[in-house]
Amino acid sequence: MAVTIDDIRRAAEAIKGAVERTPCQRSRTLSQLTGADVYLKFENLQFTAAFKDRGSLNKLLSLTPAERKAGVIAMSAGNHAQAVAYHASRLGIPSTIVMPETAPFVKVKHTKEYGARVVQKGLALSDCEQITNEIAAKEGLVFVHPYDDEKILAGQGTIGLEMLADFPDLDTIVVPIGGGGLISGIATAAKALKPSIRIVGVETELYPSMYNALKGGPAVTGGQSIADGIAVKNAGLITREICKRLVDEFLLVSEESIERAIALLLSIEKTVAEGAGATGFAALLQHPALFKGRKVGVVLSGGNIDTRLLANVLLRELQRERRILTIAVEIEDRPGILAKVAALVGDAGANIIEVQHERMLTDLPAKGAQLRITMETRDQAHADAICAAVRGAGYVVRAQDMRAHH
């Protein structure tokens, strides 16, 4: 049975009031930056900070009284877990969530706080499947699949209804793909309302599971992706059929594009997107020619990113933009030189963050030393001017490229 626009309309009615009708807004600055007319759908503003609230609630509302009494089980490393736990607890349905032992601490904590029983087994999500099936069979629990379920798809599809209600003239919608639940629901709604609309699915280069399934691409998946929410090894079966029919284009994006998207969304839109949530916007940054001059709806699917990881992403972006610059300066090892170099840097308008005075480097003369200076600058041009000023005073200067340090 395929999901229809009527299923999605029924889902919208069912979840109304219990799930946020999130804003969809045009971003002038991101539009200028990408050359597309960009409209952001802020699903990171849901209560559990991701779109998963929609599908999970629609599924839970469809259970019989006996199923509700018995309870539900789900497996997830993050957003699906939190959505099922939160809405089950609101509806008085007992929930069990199986999470890998490697799941981020904050996601485990939230899932427990929302009232679920958490079972942590296995290193990856794929290792959780067997234990989930065993507990479900033994305790008679209803399995709530993260994406391969018609009720889940209908719930996620409500995003498509809302986006086209707010902006009927959108001609493209860009959606991140993990298992394919979000894009299947949105594509079903959007194509029914506006057959001409172009649906673009985006995956990370490390986990091109839907791309592989439909395009027969390089079947290698794996690695440490910042977009852990869509780091899925196997695309769904129901979702695969829908994507084959309704998705016009599949794009892959690099980790660097995703990091840049997270940083830009925070600095320009003042909104926090997790790696998976920023992947749609990353596609506009990495493939601008495909979107130029189009009216593009971008789904920011979630905002659950670890704060330490977010801080790291922002620092790395500042280094890429040369707004944090590290230089190595060769000096004679005698009193007063450090003060001279510091004065040159200060006079050039940079703010020094850290200085390391290295004497033990064997590739320098015994009477020589190296200063490693990390500083804040305005931009690339300012960074170049600072290096030129220090060189102009007769010092050998090497800029330390960020990529060499990570």
Number of domains in the coordinates?
A: 3
**CATH structural class of the largest domain:** Alpha Beta
Strand line-up of the largest beta sheet: 1-2-10-7-8-9
Distance between the termini: 49 Å
Tell me the number of strands. 14
Structural class: alpha/beta
The rough form would be described as: elongated
Number of helices: 17
If you average the pLDDT, what whole number results?
A: 93
Q: Which CATH-level-2 architecture of the largest domain?
A: 3-Layer(aba) Sandwich
* Strand composition percent: 15-25%
Low-confidence stretches: none
Biggest beta sheet summary: 6 strands, mixed
CATH fold call of the largest domain: Rossmann fold
Evaluate the radius of gyration.
Answer: 25 Å
Verbal overview:
This protein is of the alpha/beta class. The chain has three domains: 5-51 and 149-316, Rossmann fold, CATH 3.40.50.1100; 54-143, Rossmann fold (3-Layer(aba) Sandwich), CATH 3.40.50.1100; 322-405, 2-Layer Sandwich (Alpha-Beta Plaits). The protein has 17 helices and 14 strands. Helix 9 runs parallel beside helix 11.
Quick rundown:
The chain is of the alpha/beta class and 406 residues long.
List keywords for this structure.
17 helices, Rossmann fold, 3 domains, six-stranded mixed β-sheet, elongated, four-stranded parallel β-sheet, 406 residues, single chain, alpha/beta, Alpha-Beta Plaits
Topology, please?
Blueprint: H1 5-15, E1 24-26, H2 28-34, E2 37-42, H3 52-61, H4 65-70, E3 72-75, H5 79-90, E4 95-99, H6 105-113, E5 117-120, H7 128-139, E6 142-143, H8 150-166, E7 172-176, H9 181-193, E8 198-204, H10 209-215, H11 237-246, E9 249-253, H12 255-269, H13 275-286, E10 295-300, H14 307-320, E11 324-332, H15 337-347, E12 351-358, E13 368-376, H16 380-392, E14 396-399, H17 402-405
Helix pairs in contact: 1-8, 3-5, 3-8, 5-6, 8-9, 9-11, 12-13, 12-14
